[in-house]
Amino acid sequence: MEAIGQFLPLILIFAIMYFLLIRPQQKKVKEHQAMVDAIRRGDQVVTQGGLIGKVVKVKDDNEIEVELGEGVKVRVVQSTIAQVVTKTEPAANS
Questions:
Q1: What is the CATH topology of the domain spanning 2-86?
Q2: What is the percent of the chain with per-residue pLDDT over 90, rounded to a whole number?
Q3: Alpha carbon of 7 to those of 11, 16, 19, 20: distances in Å?
Q4: Widest CA span of the chain, in angstroms?
Q5: Which of 4, 29, 63, 88 would staple 59 via disulfide (CB 3.0–4.6 Å)?
Q6: How far apart (Å, rounded) are the C-alpha atoms in residues 51 and 68?
Q7: Where is 67: in which H helix or E strand?
Q8: This model's pTM is above 0.90
């Protein structure tokens, strides 16, 4: 019984760290992944490097093509998108 009493503070510290640090980080990662998966052509995005551009093409191999300026296109790894500034509406199915 005394052994459980000695480990109780350690267990409580782990539980507090889980709820304050680990769970919020996992939630943030899931939200980022959902945002990245929802990127479409025409969206304006910000990369982790701070570049702002418009998505020209979404490729299958975890890569997108972003137009930074008139005629300036770069290939970007999809997971390095930090933020979607403006979203385009999906095309109506008619």
A1: SH3 type barrels. (2.30.30)
A2: 69
A3: 6, 14, 19, 20
A4: 72
A5: 63
A6: 7
A7: strand 63-69
A8: no
Structure letter (DSSP) for residue 50: S
* Per-residue DSSP letter, 68: E
Six token digits for residue 41: 């052509």
d(CA 37, CA 62): 9
Residues 20 and 59: their CA atoms lie apart, in Å, by 37
Write the single-letter amino acid at 85.
V
Q: Which residue has the tokens 């979404």?
A: 58
**Structural domain boundaries in the chain:** 2-86
DSSP letter for each residue of 46-83: EETTS-EEEEEEEETTTEEEEEEETTEEEEEEGGGEEE
- Residue 56 pLDDT more than 90? yes
Whole-angstrom distance, CA of residue 40 vs CA of residue 5? 55
